């Protein structure tokens, strides 16, 4: 195996905030490469979900990187929640650049729940009922059979952007962190993409098209996604070229269906606003930007 080129920038969070799309756009830049798979989750050794759990496996995630790549990225969104991933990042790279993508936590929690249902980790399709199970699940009860780590069913915790941005900025110099708000991405993805290129220090590649990636979805068959995820994890761990990743992705695409829209109960929506109010206000102070419109 050739000598690996270590990552020097990291998209560390958060899920359902446009990270998959941004990683896809960046990976097509001639001077940037993203790990394969996009989210090895190797550096969060305190969390149970680590598809790549060995240094050899992590090195294989970057074997495709050529000398043309100036910046090499790991886009594991679990890192922002980990107690030791940031320290481990600095052990890999002395001066890493960290990208964080965030959104309205009320929207994030709902979108993230849909993603967990899609993956098979969440068996409760109704978001309000899943939200009510958080305390019970924190005690290790009512955990779905296919859930690898109960932490990922704590929908409030996953969505506390203020808390985790504060924690990050207590460890890392602000100049090393670039924060993208999904609202801005939706309004003008070109501007936000160019800001990231400027942050990394690479020239524009002239990209003008920004297709939607990893949209909200539901499974046609709940058993397909965990099976395909298992096959992908085997490929990642073994570096087995005989497993056709393209075929797996085709099966996953076939298994998608548009989720049925469902308005939140007004009273439950008020509860969510109350639950996230302090964190939204904290984020507003940290970023010196008014996010109070998220609560309207």
Structural key phrases:
five-stranded parallel β-sheet, 7 strands, globular, 13 helices, Rossmann fold, alpha/beta, two-stranded antiparallel ribbon, 296 residues
Give an overview in words.
- This protein has helices at residues 19-27, 55-60, 85-92, 105-119, 127-132, 134-138, 155-158, 161-169, 182-187, 189-200, 224-238, 245-254, 266-287; strands spanning 9-13, 32-34, 71-74, 97-102, 177-181, 218-219, 256-257.
- With 296 residues, it is α/β, with parallel strands linked by helices.
- The chain has one domain: P-loop containing nucleotide triphosphate hydrolases (Rossmann fold, 3-Layer(aba) Sandwich).
- The strands form 2 sheets. The protein has a 5-stranded parallel beta sheet with strand order 2-3-1-4-5, sandwiched between helices. Strands 6-7 form a two-stranded antiparallel sheet.
- Helix 11 runs antiparallel to helix 12.
- The longest helix has 22 residues, at 266-287.
- It starts with 8 loop residues before the first strand and ends in a 9-residue tail after the last helix.
């Amino acid at each position: 195996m050739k000598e690996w080129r270590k990552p020097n920038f990291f998209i560390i969070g958060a899920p359902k905030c446009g990270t998959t799309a941004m990683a896809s756009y960046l990976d097509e830049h001639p001077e940037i490469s993203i790990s394969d798979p996009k989210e090895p989750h190797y550096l969060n050794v305190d969390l149970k979900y680590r598809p790549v759990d060995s240094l050899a496996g992590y090195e294989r995630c970057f074997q495709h990187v050529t000398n043309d790549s100036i910046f090499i990225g790991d886009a594991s969104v679990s890192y922002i929640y980990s107690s030791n991933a940031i320290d481990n990042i600095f052990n890999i790279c002395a001066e890493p650049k960290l990208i964080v993508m965030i959104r309205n936590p009320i929207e994030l929690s709902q979108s993230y729940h849909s993603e967990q249902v899609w993956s098979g980790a969440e068996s409760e399709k109704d978001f309000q009922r899943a939200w009510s199970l958080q305390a019970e699940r924190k005690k290790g009860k009512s955990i779905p059979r296919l859930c690898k780590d109960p932490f990922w069913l704590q929908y409030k915790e996953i969505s506390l952007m203020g808390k985790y941005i504060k924690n990050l900025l207590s460890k890392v110099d602000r100049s090393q962190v670039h924060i993208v708000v999904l609202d801005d991405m939706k309004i003008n993805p070109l501007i936000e993409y160019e800001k990231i290129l400027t942050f990394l220090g690479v020239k524009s590649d002239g990209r003008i098209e920004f297709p939607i990636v990893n949209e909200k979805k539901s499974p046609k068959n709940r058993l397909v996604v965990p099976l395909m995820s298992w096959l992908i994890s085997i490929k990642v761990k073994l570096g087995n070229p005989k497993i056709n990743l393209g075929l797996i992705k085709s099966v996953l695409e076939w298994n998608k269906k548009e989720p049925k829209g469902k308005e939140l109960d007004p009273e439950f929506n008020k509860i969510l606003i109350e639950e996230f109010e302090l964190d939204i206000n904290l984020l507003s102070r940290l970023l010196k930007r008014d996010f109070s419109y998220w609560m309207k």
